[in-house]
Amino acid sequence: MNNHLDKEVYESLAEFRYQLKKFLHFSDLEARKVGITPQQHQLLLAIKGYPGRDYVTPRELGERLFITHHACVGLIDRCEQQNLVTRKRNPNDGRSVLIYVTEKGEEFLEKLSEIHLNEIKRIHVFHDVFDL
């Protein structure tokens, strides 16, 4: 069973990876330009983009951001100090909290999301690499 992939497949995968890295670099720079860290931007997006609701638990955030619970709580703390997010008691479980994006956080997120959508349209990452 010696099925080799065509050179074009490797080129497409390499180009896709390059474009992803390039986009992530762009994203990090844009977050810093508006005055927040890339991690804060990712946290805001993970909350606002969570399927079916506009809040998350710290555990869900850690899972979405691929960071430990301890690191996630620290990031939430820093975001809360800058009024980007707020914690509210979980009405279904008094031992846990729910994390929401504040109005200030939403302003940052909306601005960055518009910038990111324009960049995605500009580079056509998925269309060019895989002929979608």
TrEMBL record:
SMART domains: HTH_MARR. Residues 6-132 form the HTH marR-type domain. Pfam families: MarR_2 (PF12802). PROSITE patterns: HTH_MARR_2. The keyword DNA-binding applies. Gene3D superfamilies: Winged helix-like DNA-binding domain superfamily/Winged helix DNA-binding domain (1.10.10.10). Keywords: DNA-binding. The keyword Repeat does not apply. Transmembrane segments: none annotated. This is MarR family transcriptional regulator.
